[in-house]
Amino acid sequence: MFRHTGKGRTYLHNLRLASLLSGVAGIVNIVGVLGLNTLTTNVTGHFAFLSEEFVTKNYSLVWVYFFYVVFFLAGAFVSNILIEIAARRNVIHSYALPISLEIIVLLVVSFADTPMDNDQFPSKVFLSCLLLFAMGLQNSLVTKVSQSVVRTTHLTGLFTDLGIELSQLLFYRGLSERAILRKSILLKAAIIGCFFIGGLLGGFIFLQLGIRTLYIPVALLAAALWYDSILLRIYHIRRKLRAHN
Q: How many domains is the chain partitioned into structurally?
């Protein structure tokens, strides 16, 4: 799911990756909204709020939204730094570093008490920054691994691409062209659907568990790492058996 890159990746790899991580993003996003009153999977809205607070001269909140943007950027930066360093040292599981860091960050947030009152506003901002950092990590990783085919933490660009590809179905008549289009449309629909399902399930679970709902994306990410490591071991065993034969 993670370890295949470039020509080694198949459509099925991207579909699995997109489905899992968009579901994770959907859960994290709804936890941020319900627990911290903050969108944590993209920065588009935060730029709008930053501009609004700047115009109204509410400079303390300007800094809040500025830090939201910076932490998402920092997550993307750190994710790629970890992957590049691991790749240059020939670490097989280079993708495991940003995913492991994301798991740690989500666990840190999940252990916190949900700060619902205004007296704990700084705590809410800090926890929101951590979630934005985690989503920056994830989006950078999946973009790198899939070579920009998959993005899982925000939907604006996906809906744009989906609209374009749906319109192309009206004009492209070749069987091969339409097959490629259908696969691409299915991939984007899977991301959108899993993001929505993640948000929906996460919302219901949040009513029972609160911010500890983040245990679920932590478990999903850990399971994905375990699954990939098992597949890699099987691959190496088969390779050794072929070499002996």
A: 1
